[in-house]
Design brief:
By secondary structure, this protein is an alpha/beta fold. The protein has ten helices and ten strands. Keywords: ATP-binding, Cell membrane, Membrane, Nucleotide-binding, Transport.
Length: about 260
C-alpha cells in the first residue's frame, strides 16, 4: 500500500465504563494512528461495540480520558463526533429503506450543508450551488463503490451485501478522518466479504481515511489490519501487529480456541 501511517490521532487512556454494577470496559488503553487500519476483536460480550460507542460519544466513560488530535475530548455527543470527522456504520443497518441509494448516501452530506433551510427550500443562490457540489461528491462515492446500476433503487429492495455497501457510502459522504466500522462483513457470503475488504482497503489507501473496525472473521482481520487490540470481558488482553496477536497464548485461549 502506498499510504504512510502517521502520528497518533486518537488516544484512549485508562477507559472504564460501567452500567450499574456491570463493568463493560475496565482500564483499557490503546491508540489509533493516522491512516492505519486498527481492528478491535474479541468474543461476544467482550466490550467491542461499547468501545466504538465511547469513541463516537454515544457512551461517556466514568474513568479515563480520550485524546483526539492531541487535545483532551470532554463530553462528546455523536453529532459533535461526526462534525469533528468521526463517522460510523452500524452492525444493524440503519438506512432509510424506502429511499433510493442516491438519497441515502446524500443524507451523509447533511453536516456539510451550510445554506439555511429557506434557501434550500427555494433552491436559491448558494443552496443551488451547494446542492450541485454535494451531488457531485455523492456521485463520486457511487462510482467508487461500483453501485451506479442501483443508484435509483430503493434500498429496501437490495440484497444485504449491497445494503452494507450503501451504508459504507453514507459514512464516506461525511468525508471522515476516522471511520468506525461495526462488523462491516457480518452476514455476508465469501464474495461479498472479498468486495467489502477491497473497498475498506481502497478507502484507507486512496482517501487516507483512518479505519477502526470490529470484525469477527479472524482471517479478514489478520489480512487487512495494521494493528489489532483484543478485548475479553471488557479487559484488554492483547495489542500489536497481527502476527503478535495471533501468537499470544492469552488471545489463543480466550478467542481463537486452543486448537486453532
Amino acid at each position: 500500500m502506498s499510504r504512510k501511517i502517521g502520528d497518533v490521532i486518537l488516544d484512549l487512556q485508562n477507559i472504564s465504563l460501567r452500567f450499574g454494577g456491570v463493568n463493560a470496559l475496565t482500564d483499557i488503553s490503546f491508540d489509533v494512528r493516522e491512516h492505519e487500519v486498527r481492528a478491535i476483536i474479541g468474543p461476544n460480550g467482550a466490550g467491542k461495540s461499547s468501545m466504538l460507542n465511547v469513541i463516537n460519544g454515544v457512551y461517556h466513560p466514568q474513568d479515563g480520558k480520550i485524546m483526539y488530535r492531541g487535545k483532551e475530548r470532554k463530553k462528546m455527543e455523536p453529532h459533535m463526533a461526526a462534525s469533528t470527522g468521526i463517522a460510523r456504520t452500524f452492525q444493524n443497518i440503519a438506512l432509510f429503506k424506502g429511499m433510493s441509494v442516491l438519497d441515502n448516501i446524500m443524507t451523509g452530506r447533511n453536516l456539510k450543508i451550510k445554506s439555511n433551510l429557506l434557501l434550500q427550500a427555494l433552491w436559491l443562490g448558494p443552496a443551488q450551488k451547494e446542492e450541485i457540489e454535494h451531488r457531485k461528491k455523492v456521485e463520486e462515492i457511487i462510482d467508487f463503490l461500483e453501485i451506479q446500476h442501483i443508484r435509483k433503487t430503493p434500498v429496501g429492495r437490495l440484497p444485504y451485501g449491497l445494503q452494507k455497501r450503501v451504508d459504507l457510502g453514507r459514512a464516506l459522504a461525511m468525508e471522515p478522518q476516522i471511520l468506525l466500522l461495526d462488523e462491516p462483513m457480518a452476514g455476508m457470503n465469501v464474495e461479498e466479504k472479498q468486495d467489502m475488504c477491497r473497498f475498506i482497503l481502497d478507502v484507507n489507501d486512496q482517501f487516507g481515511t483512518t479505519i477502526v473496525l470490529i470484525e469477527h472473521d479472524m482471517g479478514v482481520v489478520m489480512d487487512i489490519s495494521d494493528r489489532v487490540v483484543v478485548l475479553d470481558y471488557g479487559k484488554k488482553i492483547g495489542d500489536g501487529v497481527p502476527d503478535e496477536v495471533r501468537a499470544s497464548p492469552e488471545v489463543i485461549k480466550a478467542y481463537l480456541g486452543a486448537g486453532h
